[in-house]
Amino acid sequence: MVIVVLVAAGVVGWRVAVAEREEPLRPVAAGVGEVFTDLPAHLPEPTRVTDLPTDRAAGPGALIYHRKISTGRYDPGSRSFEQNDVYLVTRSGEQFRIGRTPADTGPLNLSLSPDGRWLAAERDGRWRIRDLSGTAEYEVAAGYEFWLWSTDARSVLLAEPSAAGRAFATMALPGGDVRLLGLPLSALGGEVAFIAGRELAVYDANPLESVSATQDLTLSLRDVLTGSSRNLTVIGSGQLRPGEAVGPMVALWRTGGDPPTIWMEVGRPDLVPADLPEGPLVAPSVALLGVDVTSGAPMTRVEIPSTGGRQLCLGVVADGVALLRSTTGGTELIVVDPRHDTRRVVTTFPEAVTVLVPGARV
């Protein structure tokens, strides 16, 4: 095994380890744990701004949010939007500012690990992984991007994009050791989930170009060390109701939970609002269909109601499927537990907000 250690001032170094194919499958962690249990019932924006501390632990995160960007706040002179503070909310309800929304409404390039312990953030063109339970920070090597969290929150999948496709590496957490993977993928494939730091769930985008080809949906789960693969059916025959389709142009995958699950949003192309500028590319999501990755058993269907305010799926955490609902008085964060068929409001915001839950990236 070849080890290369580079140490930058104030940053834990980048360590590279060449993958050894014979390494056995490691045991899955005990679980990532629920993240919303201790959140306060209401989350107003703090009156006094406190930046994320660099000299002490902040505590595991529960979510990231910011005031929703208003298209009415666009400045045609500077060709920019109003910038809003972005906050990390810890499990106990503390709020720390971790940046501001970009003026061009580009991606935040932020993500919390499934257990909320780690914060991935891009600064000055480089990704960094911060331990919120301490002060350690791992800097990702130039050319690589943060790509996916492992479902057990014990590693990160890094990608090196190119015109031909993507090459991958993994970073162990904690420790920061990096393993190069001999698993190149073409630009046509899409990586959906990184299961327990060992299997990469991949789908072929080509079938999603046709609505008629979306009645069954199967992923390929590829072992990143041995190269072996197995198929996993996410949506099988008979699960879609009349008029429903997955896609049809954009695959809306949601992954996470404990044990890990993979979901896809189901749309109704025949119900596309005529007044939206996106036109036929936007099919209202009406439900989520999913599968338990470990057993292969289908999960209970999760409905996304259209009444009582628009609802958006944010992702999947150990608590359940996270939905965001707009109300006349603000925004509600809702969790649906598909295993027990329950739905509850986790917390509310007094205004329109954009929320990022653990495991998701924007």
Can you walk me through this structure?
The chain has about 350 residues and is an all-beta fold. It has a single domain (about 5-70, about 85-355), classed as 6 Propeller (Neuraminidase), CATH 2.120.10. It has no helices and 29 strands. The protein is globular and about 50 Å long. The two termini are about 35 Å apart.
Question: CATH fold name, please?
Answer: Neuraminidase
- Strand line-up across the major sheet: 1-2-15-14-13-12
Share in helix:
under 10%
**Alpha-beta content class:** mainly beta
**What's the tally of helices?**
0
Strand content: over 45%
How does the major sheet shape up?
6 strands, mixed
CATH architecture: 6 Propeller
Give the CATH level 1 class. Answer: Mainly Beta
Radius of gyration: 20 Å
Sum up the overall morphology in one term: globular
Protein name: WD40 repeat domain-containing protein
Organism: Micromonospora orduensis
For this entry, give a set of tags:
mainly beta; WD40 repeat domain-containing protein; 6-stranded mixed sheet; 5-stranded antiparallel sheet; disordered N terminus; Neuraminidase; 362 residues
Secondary structure topology:
Elements lengths: L2 E6 L2 E8 L42 E7 L6 E2 L4 E2 L3 E6 L4 E6 L9 E3 L5 E6 L2 E6 L5 E3 L5 E5 L5 E8 L2 E8 L4 E10 L2 E7 L3 E6 L12 E7 L5 E7 L9 E2 L6 E4 L4 E7 L17 E8 L9 E2 L7 E7 L2 E8 L2 E8 L4 E8 L3 E4 L6
Protein name: WD40 repeat domain-containing protein
